[in-house]
Design a protein that fits this description.
Blueprint: H1 25-39, E1 48-55, E2 58-64, E3 74-75, H2 80-93, H3 108-111, H4 124-128, H5 145-151, H6 156-161, H7 177-191, H8 193-205, E4 213-215, E5 229-231, H9 233-244, E6 248-249, E7 252-253, H10 257-263, E8 278-279, E9 300-303, E10 309-313, E11 318-324, H11 336-350
Antiparallel strand pairs: 1-2, 1-11, 3-5, 4-5, 6-7, 8-9, 9-10, 10-11
Length: 359
Amino acid sequence: RKSPPPRDIPWPLGEMVFIPPKLDVSVTDRLKRVVDAMFLEASTTRNTRGLLLVHQGSLIVERYAPGLNHMSMVSGAFMGAMIVNALIGVLVDQKRISVTDPAYQYLSCWQGTDEVDPRRLITIDHLLRMTSGLQFGERTTLLSDLSHLLYNCFDAAAYAANHRVLEEPGNRWQLSSGSTVLLAKIIREVVGDNQYLHFTRKELFDKLQMGNTVVEPDPSGTFLFPAYTYASARDWARLGLLYAQKGMFNGQRVLSEDWLKYSTSPTTPAHHWGAHLWLNTGRPGYPSSRRYLRLPTDAVFAFGQQGCSLVVIPSRSLVVMRIGQDIALDWQWDPTTLVTSLEPLLKAIGDSPQRSSTW
């Protein structure tokens, strides 16, 4: 774990935060009312505990409920899927793997399987798009596959790999932490055990100044991205900024445009899902079928537990990081009200000499 970014350098390269000295008072007041509404939601099932807004690369709003601050580590749970997308993208950009490669080439537990074993048809693309056909229960009940993988496994990837194929790969979409763990294992196999612990830090976290982020491994040493990824809200926002800036960060190309184009193309059986990213594209040719009709089609999401959410809208140069403590049955927080309330303010904010604000 790298030390957090220096406090004397502005975010996102450091942790310095400024109050905007030149924003119009009316804009500041309207923005404050929007943020206040987030923390005073009428619903008894939604509970916002933290909110960061990033516009045109600048942190414009930061607020936390009592007990949290900018250094608090937030469990992202399945938000870690976005990190896996980035790491696989780095390997693809380095031409060390291809998404069309059969996964068994990199998974030692599948290399001894019979040639007619249907798992040999599963590609990296299938794992990224959750269309592997592997039987895996994502419920968090006591005896579910997910609970066993997270709490009762020495080698989580081996457990996920041992499941049988129910359908031909590519035919059916099913959210599966097992697929994410298999991708983490592929990363480990490609970079080697000697470099595995350093690869994520060197190729992603250090480049994004994510110095307050930790990923825990299973006992065998493979990172459990879909459950045990912890980061400050600012670090999650840095990750979102990478996608908002189309793979660029601090003037450096971290992910290629080709990778982002692939990642944000909808999966055939599930138009709301890309390559380990939630999308808002709708079915090809039918944008009106998208889930969030009032949000742009280029919006990308990472959803975690209890309403923790990372929302990235490149066309609006906007990143939203919400810390939640929800008890809602729908674990995906709907960002529509917040984003549509912000839209009239974004141009005025963008036209002002921007600094950051904390309320």
